[in-house]
Amino acid sequence: MRKLRMDLGVVALTLAFLQLNFQLVLYSALGLSVQDGASHPLLLVWVVAPMLFLGVALVRLAATRRLTSVTELAALALLLVCSVHAVFISASHGLNSGAFAFLTWATWIGVFLYLSRDMSKDWPKLVMSLLILGGILNAVPIIYESITGTALFKTATIADVTRRYGINQSISLVGLQLALGIIATCYYVMKDYKKILPILILVIQITGLILSASRGPLIYMSISLVAIATFLPKSPNRRVLVIFTVGLFVLSTVLYLLTARVSLAGDDQLGFVLSALTISDAGNSERLAYFAYAFDMWTASAWTLIAGYGSGLLSLLAVRSGGVELGAESSAIKVLLELGVLGALPFYIVVATTFRRGIQLWRSRVDDRLPYIMGAFIVIVLQLTFHETLKAWVGAMYFWMLAAAILHVGRASRRVPQSRPPFTRRARAGLHGASAR
Question: Could you give the CA distance from residue 231 to residue 239 in angstroms, rounded to a whole number?
Answer without folding.
Answer: 12
